[in-house]
């Protein structure tokens, strides 16, 4: 697994560029200072989302010199709100633009920001079929209406991220284990400290039991880029040491890019310090009603 690519919206903006930002923030989080949230700028897409998906997948394929016609599956993951905005010809447009003539498209959603980790496990499991050679995983999230970007838990930006899972091309990472757990109370809008902690601990327990590893052995954790106080609080209730988190710089530059965040954070970490064989990374995502994580091992 490797050849990660991130393509952000082409317009760089500040929160104050959002029409009526002050009123939106006051309505979302009354009497809370936005300056303490850890945000700086964010990106928005000026064109159709297919354009950004095509560019991200193109970079991913070039990273391992994989021919488009040798990709057997394209697994798209997106949050629920974005799913309804995708045109019915979105997958066809992407496949045709890239020349992926033998590729089966799949879309996975309904798990909010946890969708891409569910898609990662799904993509990995496709290799139980010996005919599957190359799978491209794509996460995408964008917010067409500026009025929806400002929430009490995050400032939304637009991005696409992708990576290659390959039987032939190899890559610097392998997936040791991944899972998504559900918090029914959260789905109903009745989540609590206890329910959020319980679902996080259940996800961690499954991933570490399946992989035979421990949280203490993890080099870095790549979480969802919620506001900094929220991200740190979520890490605390899940038992993740703050010094293992890598998200602050990407939050400041791009905001919360939905289910693409863990890949964006991973790429940023690797570009900054690289990776060493044997290092272990925990991709983590949280959303109302869900908690997901995946353990990646550098090979």
What report would you give on this structure?
The protein is an alpha/beta fold and 299 residues long. The protein has 2 domains: 2-166, Peroxisomal Thiolase, Chain A, domain 1, CATH 3.40.47; 173-298, Peroxisomal Thiolase, Chain A, domain 1 (3-Layer(aba) Sandwich), CATH 3.40.47.10. The protein has 10 helices and 11 strands. The strands form 3 sheets. A 5-stranded mixed beta sheet has the order 1-7-6-4-5, with helices on both faces. A 4-stranded mixed beta sheet has the order 8-11-10-9, sandwiched between helices. Strand 10 and strand 11 form a beta hairpin. Helix 2 (49-63) packs across helix 4 (90-98). The radius of gyration is 18 Å and the shape is globular. The mean pLDDT is 96.
Quick take:
With 299 residues, the chain is of the alpha/beta class.
The Cα radius of gyration reads 18 Å
Helix % is 25-40%
Query: Beta-strand percentage?
Result: 15-25%
- What's the multimeric state? single chain
The major sheet is characterized as: 5 strands, mixed
What sequence of helices (H) and strands (E) makes up the elements?
EEHEHEHHEHEEEHHEHHHEE
Shape: globular
- Number-wise, the strands total 11
User: Terminal Cα separation, in Å?
Assistant: 10 Å
The number of helices is 10
Low-confidence stretches: none
Mean pLDDT: 96
CATH fold annotation of the largest domain = Peroxisomal Thiolase, Chain A, domain 1
CATH-defined superfamily of the largest domain: Thiolase/Chalcone synthase
CATH class of the largest domain: Alpha Beta
Number of domains: 2
Please state how the strands of the largest beta sheet are arranged side by side. 1-7-6-4-5
Q: What is the CATH-assigned architecture of the largest domain?
A: 3-Layer(aba) Sandwich
InterPro entries: Thiolase-like (IPR016039)
